[in-house]
């Protein structure tokens, strides 16, 4: 049976949001749940935690679990953690034990092959990790905490134990790629399991993928559904499949202090399904692409994010969208419009910059438009980001054109539910914007969106056309 005295002695519940639960049920000798957490403390490492004896038995693995059998890796045996840590992700305050950002990298179930004081052999069945691992304490070891972990060849010896779980973890062929799906019944929205999310992204892929092509995607993951914490993920992760296109992009000003990140570029159905299986619900893209050599290109889109302040909503956003469209028309720009899938609207117009124009040119133009609208109707529109200036107004966020920022992609799910279904960032007809008097008419579910595509095609297609010069 585990103990949590050491865990509690190292932490102050008044300073950290980490859980302080009690020892739970102990009937987990044959296996149970596991979690792997990516931990950005003094040094990046991965915490592997196995449910056993009413606690989580833990190892800190600096380089992460081995991808293939071979040389063992260091695995530092740490104190037992409460079971509530299975779901924990967030920021541990600096100065506290383990201070830094922690995210759920993978989770699932495991089966025990052997468990002794010096050796733990288990089979992990997660979304990213799938295989047999052995944690062991070397015979000659000055520090009893310094264990090693190695990966074993999966010889099929646990196939009998896995058979029931494999029903919910099928391997499927998607566009010639073999993918392992997992936890298909897990609810990501109230009443909406992961398999429904996978189904939507698979069915919308032909329309969505052209809007993602060439754009490094920032992923928003919800491992435990929209009612739990989420996190943004830029790095594809070292266990991403080799066929998944990634591109290293500078990330100046990163909150994690990283100068670059390896972003996913989603250009095929298998990539979309792979990400959805990791509980990636939202896809956020910049207003620029990379070329075939993975070099960033100049911005090719102009965006306006219409954010309703307190006392306003989609109806007021629609009125502002109509005014912006008229200004863009005058300047020879063609605008598409969509709901954000949350509270507001977004507009996109394809542009092309001259060789001597700076990337900031799109932000400068958008700012001029926003400020002009605010001068004309200061009681209903603001171009200022300060939240205390937004009551009763629509904020025209021109700053989304900054090359370091992203906007949710058209047809992406959002982390909201309405009328018993997820909401989607949905392209609109301009007639719908003109006639908008009831915000509920502009809230769409995945099934609504698929029906709209069948009827109208891609209402955001003009964003993919050849861009125009900015005046």
Can you tell me about this structure?
The chain has 471 residues and is an alpha+beta fold. Helix content is 19%, strand content 32%. It is built from eight helices and 26 strands. The strands form six sheets. The chain has an eight-stranded antiparallel beta barrel. Strands 14, 15, 16, 17, 18 and 24 form a six-stranded antiparallel β-sheet that branches. Strand 5 and strand 6 form a beta hairpin. Helix 3 (194-212) packs across helix 4 (269-277) and helix 3 (194-212) packs across helix 8. Residues 155-167 have low confidence and may be disordered.
DSSP strand count: 26
Number of discrete helical segments: 8
Structural class estimated from helices and strands: alpha+beta
**Shape summary:** elongated
Report the radius of gyration as a whole number of Å. Answer: 25 Å
Low-confidence parts lasting 5 or more residues at pLDDT below 50?
155-167
- Give the oligomer, counting copies of the same chain as homo and different chains as hetero: single chain
User: End-to-end distance, in Å?
Assistant: 71 Å
Largest sheet: 8 strands, antiparallel, barrel
Fraction in beta strands: 25-35%
Placed side by side, the strands forming the largest sheet appear as 1-2-3-4-9-8-7-6
The percentage helix is 10-25%
Q: Average pLDDT across residues?
A: 90
């Amino acid at each position: 049976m585990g103990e949590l005295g050491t865990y509690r002695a190292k932490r102050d519940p008044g300073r950290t949001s980490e859980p302080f639960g009690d020892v739970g049920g102990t009937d987990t000798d044959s296996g149970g749940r596991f979690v792997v957490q990516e931990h950005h403390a003094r040094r990046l490492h991965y915490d592997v935690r196995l449910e056993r004896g009413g606690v989580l038995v833990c190892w800190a693995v600096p380089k992460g679990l081995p991808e293939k059998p071979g040389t063992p890796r260091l695995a530092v045996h740490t104190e037992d953690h409460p079971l509530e840590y299975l779901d924990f992700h967030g920021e541990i305050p600096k100065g506290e034990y383990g201070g830094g950002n922690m995210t759920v990298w993978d989770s699932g179930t495991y089966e025990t092959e052997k468990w002794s004081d010096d050796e733990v052999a288990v089979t992990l069945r997660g979304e990213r990790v799938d295989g047999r691992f052995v944690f062991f304490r070397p015979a000659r070891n000055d520090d009893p905490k310094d264990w090693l972990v190695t990966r074993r060849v999966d010889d099929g010896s646990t196939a009998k134990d896995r058979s029931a779980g494999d029903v919910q973890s099928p391997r499927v062929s998607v566009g010639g790629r073999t993918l392992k799906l997992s936890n298909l019944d897990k609810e990501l929205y109230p009443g909406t399991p992961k398999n429904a999310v996978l189904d939507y992204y698979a069915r919308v892929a032909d329309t969505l993928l052209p809007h993602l092509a060439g754009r490094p995607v920032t992923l928003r993951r919800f491992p435990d559904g929209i009612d739990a914490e989420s996190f943004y993920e830029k790095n594809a992760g070292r266990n991403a499949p080799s066929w998944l296109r990634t591109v290293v992009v500078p990330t100046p000003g990163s909150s994690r202090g990283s100068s670059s990140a390896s972003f996913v570029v989603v250009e095929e159905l298998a990539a979309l399904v792979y990400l959805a299986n990791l509980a990636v619900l939202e896809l956020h893209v910049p207003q620029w692409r990379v070329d075939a050599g993975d070099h960033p290109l100049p911005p090719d889109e102009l965006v306006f994010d219409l954010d309703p302040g307190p006392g306003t909503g989609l109806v007021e956003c629609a009125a502002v969208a109509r005014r912006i469209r008229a200004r863009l028309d005058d300047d020879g720009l063609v605008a598409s419009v969509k709901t954000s899938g949350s509270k507001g609207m977004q507009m996109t117009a394809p542009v092309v910059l001259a060789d001597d124009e700076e990337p900031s040119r799109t932000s400068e133009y958008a700012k001029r438009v926003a400020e002009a609208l605010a001068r004309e109707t200061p009681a209903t529109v603001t171009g200022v980001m300060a939240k205390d200036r937004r009551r009763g107004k629509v904020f025209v966020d021109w700053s989304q054109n900054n090359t370091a920022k992203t906007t949710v992609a058209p047809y992406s799910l959002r982390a909201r539910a309405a009328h018993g279904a997820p909401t989607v960032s949905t392209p609109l007809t301009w007639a719908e914007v003109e006639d908008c008097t009831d915000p509920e008419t502009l809230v769409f579910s995945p099934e609504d969106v698929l029906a709209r595509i069948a009827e109208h095609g891609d209402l955001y297609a003009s964003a993919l056309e050849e861009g125009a010069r900015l005046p």
